[in-house]
Specification:
Elements: H1 27-31, H2 35-51, H3 57-79, H4 86-98, E1 99-100, H5 105-120, H6 131-142, E2 148-149, H7 158-174, H8 178-199, H9 203-207, H10 213-222, H11 233-252, H12 258-297
Antiparallel strand pairs: 1-2
Helix pairs in contact: 2-4, 2-7, 3-4, 3-5, 4-5, 4-6, 4-10, 5-6, 6-12, 7-10, 8-11, 11-12
């Protein structure tokens, strides 16, 4: 019969991690998924109360509810799990802010297209378009007679603009994506001077769109989306530059939706290139290993 053993418990070292208990996580960790939705809701409220950027609260609510419902349904069908609604909420609220239509159906359809793209347009088990970017661009192309995108300026209320920029900066800093926003804004400003030189327009008018609502959501939520950006910091900055450059040419062609269209083309191409590079590296690592195994067997 074995003798009972006595366990002694020594104090944890100073650098030991805090133990995690089953079913319990720190409050800050549990709140993390909700912080971007909270901040974008504050941006919506500040923008609408100050400048009336929404078509209506009911249309925005329809976009949000449709996005969340589509996310839950498709998540259960394809992934067999209950997906977190935070991402769908952001997609829905982005649709509600950016889309313009006198009818209700474009808001529901745009949200449905946005979320469906996450599950239908995948490559190597990864969706390659930012959902709201895809949905809005699809609506602008396929239903141009019924919809438009928000492109007006916020106005001259500096206090509201500062609040929105601060909230957006906090979001991308927490996501460790601020360098993407900073790179894009720097390139946009530099190319604005070049565009002003080419067109003869005042440089102030070329730079001013960056203070508009479409650009606010674009540079804080779309271009920085962790699920649809490449992994490396350098690669993320290169993609931001590529988006700004393509947008430069779209704006020269008088496209008022230039940033949305630029990301629509550059984002997926960048992800596909990254996947191709990863596949080549994996083959390069696997080939010598296979050769060594064959040599051992021989």
């Amino acid at each position: 019969m074995s003798q009972p053993t006595t366990q002694t418990h020594s104090p944890l070292p100073a650098n030991a991690a805090t133990p995690q208990f089953r079913g319990w996580t720190p409050l800050s960790s549990r709140l993390n998924p909700f912080l971007p939705p909270i901040f974008i809701t504050l941006i919506l409220l500040v923008g609408n109360l100050s400048f009336g950027i929404l078509e209506s609260y009911s249309k925005t609510l329809l976009a949000i509810v449709t996005a969340i419902a589509a996310e839950i349904a498709l998540g259960r069908i394809f992934l067999h799990k209950w997906p977190h609604p935070a991402s769908a909420y952001i997609s829905g609220i982005s649709v509600g802010i950016l889309l313009r239509s006198p009818a209700f159906w474009p808001y529901a359809l745009c949200s449905a297209l946005s979320i469906t793209s996450k599950y239908a347009l995948r490559f190597r088990n990864r969706h390659i378009w930012n959902p709201s970017n895809f949905g809005i661009c699809a609506m602008l192309i396929l239903a141009s007679q019924s919809v438009a995108s928000l492109s007006i300026q916020w106005g001259n209320n500096l206090a509201s603009l500062i609040v929105i920029w601060v909230l957006g900066t906090v979001i991308v800093l927490r996501a460790r994506r601020f360098h993407i926003t900073l790179t894009y804004v720097a390139c946009f400003i530099a190319l604005s001077f070049l565009r002003a030189h080419i067109t003869g327009d005042p440089w102030q008018s070329e730079i001013s769109p960056v203070t508009g609502p479409m650009y606010q959501l674009f540079m804080f939520f779309m271009i920085t989306d962790p699920k649809t950006t490449v992994r490396s910091r350098l690669g993320q900055c290169i993609v931001a530059v590529a988006v700004a450059v393509l947008e430069f040419f779209f704006r020269l062609d008088s496209s008022i939706y230039a940033p949305l269209y630029a990301l629509f083309w550059v984002g997926p191409v960048a992800l596909l290139i990254e996947m191709w590079i990863d596949a080549r590296r994996a083959r390069a690592i696997r080939t010598p290993a296979i050769a060594d195994q064959k040599a051992v067997r021989a």
